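Continuing the series of single-chain predictions for the mutant panel. This is the parent chain; the variants come on the following pages.
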Amino acid sequence: MDRDELVAALVDRCTFPDAGTSLECAFSGGADSTALLILGVAARCAVVAHHVDHGLRPSSGHEAANARTIADAVGVPFVEYRIHVDPGPNLEARARAARTSALPDNVATGHTLDDQAETVLANLLRGAGTGGLAAMRPSACKPLLSLRRHETEELCQAFGLRPVHDPSNHDASFRRNRIRHELLPLCDRISDRDVAPLLARAADLCRQDDDMLDDLSVAIDPTDAVALRDASPVLAVRALRSWLTVAGYPPDRAALERVLDVVHGRRTACELAGGVRVARTGQRLRRIPPGAQ
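Parent structure:
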């Protein structure tokens, strides 16, 4: 298969927006995000590469320069952000949050099917329900979720591009890396097959079930204690979770159990993360912001 045939075959499996649509891409310079640029251009989107330099490694400036070179070779504009993240606990999560805040809203990422499989396992290990096991939703912001990591690497080779290598991807102090380099290979050996497509398919099935349950829960008024008590517990919890989700962060199960105590009259009010309170007056629930009475 020559280069043009490879590009056409891969683009056909992606979920890019319509031709001419602006596509702001998170761009590390690695193989996956490089493939995102190449295929986004092939899909005739108006691609812009956004690179975040955390300054966490002495080599980060060199990596940024290499990322710019790759973007220039692909023929897309390159925007660089320099941010500071202090070393210490939860470094991976804090770096991710800082990166997200620096990048444009609805930025596209180069997550692949392999990343999807890792996300399913990571969420399983933290005790997630169907919403977490549904993992990442295919969309214009996640256009490569049907591709494999070896395919993005093959694409870079076909274009003669040498992706940036991030040494933190092999740091065993990050749980995601242990899932990638230890747990997934162990699953492959135990099952005697490549389990990543199976985990991605499981995510698709969980997402279908999750969407159906969400649709059913919409009919429940989350401020009506009577309606919540009469509903299926599964749907009542979903109605409450949707009502209490703030800035994309849903309450955890322990918080929802406290709210259910309020619903069932076992307490008159409870506190959630961030100082938000839920109180009941008669049969109505109220969400009270921090500092309000």
